[in-house]
Amino acid sequence: MLAVVPPPVTVRVPAKVNLHLAVGDARSDGFHELSTVFQALSLTDEVTVGVADTPGVEVHGEGASSVPTGPSNLAWRAVRALAEHVGRDPDEPKVRVVIRKAIPVAGGMAGGSANAAAALVGLAALWRLELGRDDLAAIAMRLGSDVPFVLHGGTALGTGRGERLVPVLSRHSFHWVLAFDRRGLSTAQVYQELDRLRADGDPPRLGSVEPMLEALASGDPRQLALLLGNDLQAAAVSLRPGLRRTLRAGVSAGALAGAVSGSGPTCAFLCPDHDSAVEVATELSGAGVCRTVRVAHGPVPGARVIGGDDSPRPAPPEVHA
Ligand SMILES: C[C@@](CO)(OP(=O)(O)O)[C@H](O)COP(=O)(O)OP(=O)(O)OC[C@H]1O[C@@H](n2ccc(N)nc2=O)[C@H](O)[C@@H]1O
Ligand SMILES: Nc1ncnc2c1ncn2[C@@H]1O[C@H](COP(=O)(O)OP(=O)(O)O)[C@@H](O)[C@H]1O
Predict the structure, then answer these.
(1) What residues make up the catalytic site (predicted)?
(2) Which ligand is nearest to the CA of 68?
């Protein structure tokens, strides 16, 4: 009898922005203790997982040429971790992973983490595993600090190294403009640069997260804009001084506020509504301060199966600089 080959599974997974990123001192394991508010955005990657004779990863789209396709690919590491978890041969998982990227690589928007989260959800569906979200979350946190959040989605408070999550009430949608830089930044180097800046002086640190949680519950983008903050921003700007100009240009173009997203170099600008976000994106793309501009909204759900290969794939609105 012929074995039935299950159809490939496609998963859509969001990028994230940190609305509040308070970084504590380095711990003995090298990670920094965080208090961060994540929001999942409508800028998404798609990851298809299918049974294959030639296992491996292929990557298409935004920044594809700088993403490894070997064993260090985060989606492939997720496939191996899940295979091991359920007792299948992690060296021969017999699956092919196709990644279509829209999230900038090494952009501070958790693109690699998103691909890992999507691969977990896709493979669990392909293999019809009886695993709950908690099982997947336990594997996710071993793959990277941001992986649990992009699996979860929405808006959440992250503590520990960012992997311990509590959902946060967020009323209404918020509208964002994202400015992609020409090259990425290494997350580890940005944390190191913050340690260096703190050893040399005492750069200001973010205060309590409570006012941010209140602003999210109110749903008022103007209140939220006053509170956007990121302790890694000074380090990202120190490594990439041109970001100062990008941040100024977004606010001059009409954004309520702007901040570096995570470890950067992507800059995220909060706008009052969708129409103003399109206007800000258009003006920013003409200012010559970044490579590409995108419009997005949040919060959106975490990694979700979207069906077979022929299901519709809305492209994110795009403005090229
Ligand atoms: C800065 C943040 C903010 O959400 O996001 P990105 O800007 O990378 O998207 C995260 O903390 C990044 O999370 P993620 O990209 O998953 O990092 P990991 O792979 O876990 O760690 C990469 C490196 O970053 C540093 N790191 C990461 C998390 C943390 N709490 N403290 C750290 O010092 C460590 O040097 C670690 O070796
Ligand atoms: N599937 C993947 N997608 C993107 N980057 C990946 C992937 N797998 C491994 N990487 C590597 O992970 C690093 C961090 O990428 P990414 O997660 O996009 O950035 P960030 O941590 O700034 O959000 C990059 O140097 C990239 O080469």
Answers:
(1) 16, 146
(2) 2
Same domain, 56 and 204: no
pLDDT of residue 3: 74
Same domain (yes/no): 268, 190: yes
Q: Look up the pTM and report it.
A: 0.95
Nearest-atom number in ligand 2 for the CA of 59 is 1
300: nearest Cα among 74, 26, 39: 39
Res. 186: pLDDT tops 70: yes
**pLDDT (tens digit, 9 = 90+) per residue, 56-70?**
999 999 999 999 999
Q: How many domains does the chain have?
A: 2
Same domain membership, residue 272 and residue 162 = no
Residue 150 and residue 220 in one domain:
no
| Claim to verify: residue 22 and residue 86 sit in the same structural domain | yes
Task: Give the CATH number, domain containing residue 252.
Answer: 3.30.70.890
CB-based contact 319:282 (threshold 8 Å): yes
Q: Which of 16, 45, 101, 181 is catalytic?
A: 16
AA letter at 60: H
CA distances from 147 to 33, 119, 136, 269 (A): 16, 11, 10, 23
Residues above pLDDT 90, as percent of the chain? 89
What is the rounded distance in angstroms from the CA atom of residue 213 to the CA atom of residue 127? 39
Give the distance (Å) from ligand 1 centre to CA of residue 264: 11
**pLDDT, tens digit, 9 for 90 and up, residues 224-235:** 999 999 999 999
| Residue having the nearest C-alpha atom to atom 17 of ligand 2 | 112
- Give the range of the structural domain holding residue 212, as residue numbers without chain letter: 174-298
- CB-defined site of ligand 1, < 6 Å: 18, 21, 30-32, 34, 36, 108-110, 113, 144-146, 161-162, 187-188, 191, 262-263
Which pLDDT belongs to residue 48? 98
Cα 233 to its chain centre, rounded Å, is: 16
Active site residue 146: yes
